[in-house]
Amino acid sequence: MFFMRLWKRLRSSPAEPGQAVDEINQTEAAVPDHESDGRRRLSDVPYLLPKDLDEINRLDFQHYVLRLALGRLTFAPVDEQLRQGGQVLDVGCGTGRWAIEIARLYPLTHVTGLDLEQAKATTPPPNYRFIQGNLLQGLPFADSTFHYTHQRFLVAAIPLERWPGAICELYRVTAPGGWIELIELGAETRNAGPCLQQLIAWGRQLAAPRGIDGTQMSRLGEWLQQAGCRQIYTHTLWLPVGAWAGRLGLLFMRDLAAGFNGLEALAVRACGITPEHFRQTIAALEQECNQHQTRYACYLAAGQR
To answer: What is the rounded distance in angstroms from the CA atom of residue 210 to the CA atom of residue 35?
Structure first.
């Protein structure tokens, strides 16, 4: 029932001020712009997806989908450390949902969420704080501050040439013996039909001028090694897309469709297509993925400093 309520919120129109559980606290570091579809975006950063209430709801939904797929909150072997206490950093924390859950699960650990702007949710626990910042401009923390540095789903925010340097920055703020964890969706699929292939192609066309390339996310472990990490673990999680795979597949299908929906205005302008064509392609996606039993690659990597 929780997932269905969240999905209804994801599909609904933005709530009036004061009605939404989540809201954006706009700061001077992020310059908003609005597309013809009414979606709010940031015009001074390479981030491809919207930054609005609909996207906040989708990110919360995506968090629960990944938690269901993993069966836990962490990929790196940090449970024992966090139970004893320590410092955790979540880079690009988005809604703060993951960071807040970590703070509640490990009350002796202090958790810091960092993003371009703050998305307020429920009252956070006392061991959580938010810091405004931009990874691409350098993290506002001293060397060796954190025992566990976590970052996920920033493929649409970091140009390909900036990835090695960004991971070196994560390495810098991680304490010796601490762990860095990265999780990203790429562009690799299994049994993808023409609609999904077309949506991915449009996404790549939109991403290319910003220097973003989702086809290289399988290199996360390589970049961790280049930064100086040791004892590196990598895993490719093949997420099912569609009701053919049960609850997880259905939920991820809806998350994926909502993510592509956020690209509509950009695709119509840049790819020479009509809004109707774009929407029809998304509308056909669920049946197609069920027919082909499609899977989508999610890359996980963790390395110890």
So the answer is: 17
User: Tens of pLDDT along 55-105?
Assistant: 888 888 899 999 999 999 999 999 999 999 999 999 999 999 999 999 999
Residue range 114-126, pLDDT digits in tens: 999 887 656 899 9
